Backbone:
DNA sequence: TTAAAGCTTCCCATAATGGCAAGGTCAAGG
DNA sequence: CCTTGACCTTGCCATTATGGGAAGCTTTAA
């Protein structure tokens, strides 16, 4: 049993985020000492590591909630996990394509910009009046705020089906 | 001269965002009718189109603010514009690399998952205890919330050096 | 005993966008 | 002249995941 600071250090998840995850119900409420300090077991730390790793792989908290449910379900079908993972990969690929289109368009424009002291600049010219040439599919991101938004996130997570039961 | 709805329609920027851009000082305060309605000229719409296009190319509002300054500066050096564009491209490329690392890791894991009714799943196994194999550089995004965070954004923009002067 | 380090909760901020609500305005039609 | 509907205004709330900071209590080491 350790305090939140230790759990943070061992899991790689900041204390701040651990409290946040508890608050939104991604992890169950930690047991408290008499003074109100949260206490974590190495099992809890294990869960946190899982979460950390999933975050590193770009899963949203919402998706991690689902992953945790599957993780704890001894009768899960690996197909469900795979489907979740692949749908996330699809989201990543879509985002990558979008960013690549932007980068490509910009690089194309930059290639034609002398980049000297003179004011004439095809980059600004294109921003002012887009030429069909560079118009690819960078327009209308359809449903992409700036990224990170792959899942709409229902409301409150309340899965907390993690370790402690 | 047109109302905000028309300007929105012609520029592709929502009325909501036009007000927002005005509020943060990206564009100058619109002139108002006696009743308080904002009015826009086709020149204003032109600025808004510029902004819209820049957003489509992934520039942050902060960066767009700089682009607008350059756009309006007859004595700009195209090198400054190019530098700004290329630094943004670098940010995009970095993000792309990060997402690709995630996607690749996940695809690799998914490849080894049967995806059937059985519970054994290498994806969950890896999330639980990462194996060096898939550990590439997906860890520690260094300074990347979820994306969009390329520029720290000082405080308030207050450039408003756009059209109307 | 005291100081430092750690914990708690609460509030604020981020980037860019949408939604909703209450209320004023304007134009067209009766 | 009045109503209706479309449009405008402001203001507030929500989103995602994360960090910062303050005020106050606890624990620990000296």
Residues:
């Amino acid at each position: 049993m350790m305090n939140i600071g230790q759990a943070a250090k061992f899991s790689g998840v900041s204390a701040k985020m651990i409290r946040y995850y508890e608050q939104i119900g991604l992890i169950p409420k930690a047991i408290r000492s008499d003074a109100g300090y949260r206490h974590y077991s190495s099992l809890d730390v294990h869960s946190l590591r899982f979460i950390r790793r999933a975050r590193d792989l770009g899963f949203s908290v919402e998706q991690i909630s689902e992953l945790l449910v599957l993780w704890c379900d001894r009768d899960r079908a690996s197909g469900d996990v795979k489907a979740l993972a692949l749908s996330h990969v699809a989201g990543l690929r879509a985002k990558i394509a979008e960013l690549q289109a932007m980068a490509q368009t910009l690089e194309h424009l930059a290639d034609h910009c002398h980049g000297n002291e003179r004011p004439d600049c095809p980059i600004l010219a294109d921003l002012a009046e887009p030429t069909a040439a560079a118009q690819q599919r960078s327009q209308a991101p359809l449903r992409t705020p700036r990224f990170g938004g792959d899942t709409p996130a229902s409301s409150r997570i309340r899965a907390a089906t993690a370790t402690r039961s």
